[in-house]
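Late entry, written up from scratch paper. The run itself happened at the end of the previous shift, but nothing got recorded in the book at the time, so transcribing now.
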Amino acid sequence: RVQDALIARGFANRVLELEVPVKTSQAAADAVGCTVAQIVKSLVFRLADAADPPRIALVVASGVNRVDAGRLATLLGGEVTMADPKLVRRVTGFAIGGIPPLGHAESLETFIDRDLLTHASLWAAAGHPNSMFPLTPDELVRMGRDVERVVLARAVRAHLERRVFVDGRRTIIL
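Output as recorded:
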């Protein structure tokens, strides 16, 4: 499915099937012969409020970095928590451990770790712990922009349908 998503979006990257599953960034780096810093890990967070549907964010981070939940909370406007496995599967279409940076079941607000942009090449999960694909930082950013376009298109549609309201410093879309 990830290979199909790559092709559909005009990327020439090829998914590599690994002999053994890789469940950590270190194991992934060892399997493909790169540094842990070059591993793209995709993590799903949700706002901790009880909103239904919940506001979801995908954080694409370097394998050596931890996500700063406080900074993410500031960007999203509320406390964040890791999404539970069931929610992750629903919004991405993939289980934890194999989430790629594209090809998700739903369009997700995406944040990219700037440290990933300092490497010449990267490796990302391809939908299963036994598969990965190589990519460049520019390709990663282009994948994120595809998501931005979808989110922007939805926002414009909501505005045209008069479903956008401003409440102080927050914008509410019904």
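The chain is about 30% helix and 25% strand.
(Scratch paper discarded after transcription.)
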